[in-house]
């Protein structure tokens, strides 16, 4: 049986080197290539197809891990993407899963957990670090938990197509405060536009 081939994507050379050395201790796992950015990952993934792509989420300037995951999976549905990051916020986890990540492992995970995650992803299994799985489960049970009550209320009002001024009047707050709340909502949901936030709001209503 051929070893599981892995592509490492992380902007820190030290992290890639350490992870490569760690994975190299396993006879059934082989690192075939490395990339330092999302853009580079897309090119190298074509040159060196891997069973599993281990992807960091934040990589400085340029394409982030979420966008890279989407584009990788558009190019090849055969690859399994395993997020390997220090970020464990609810929004990051949900965004990664929505983008198509097969698993989500934190960088402080034990070596045995990392090995198991790579093997599981290669087999098409969803693998999550215990803290990540717990957060994702809570998020699915209560989609509004990531938002404050006021933010959740404002998000639900967005569906009605209210302007910032109308939102302010409805909630008895200033337009500036509305904009601040919207900025926080966008950041937490991992979206950049009003339309995207409304799409999330509609999906949440459907989950109730």
Automatic annotation (TrEMBL):
GO terms for molecular function: DNA binding. Residues 140-205 form the HTH luxR-type domain. The keyword Transcription regulation applies. Keywords: DNA-binding, Phosphoprotein, Transcription, Transcription regulation. The modification 4-aspartylphosphate is found at residue 56. It comes from the Bacteria. InterPro entries: CheY-like_superfamily, NreC/VraR/RcsB-like_REC, Sig_transdc_resp-reg_C-effctor, Sig_transdc_resp-reg_receiver, Tscrpt_reg_LuxR_C, WalR-like. Residues 5-122 form the Response regulatory domain. This is DNA-binding NarL/FixJ family response regulator. One of its GO terms (biological process) is phosphorelay signal transduction system. It comes from Arthrobacter bambusae.
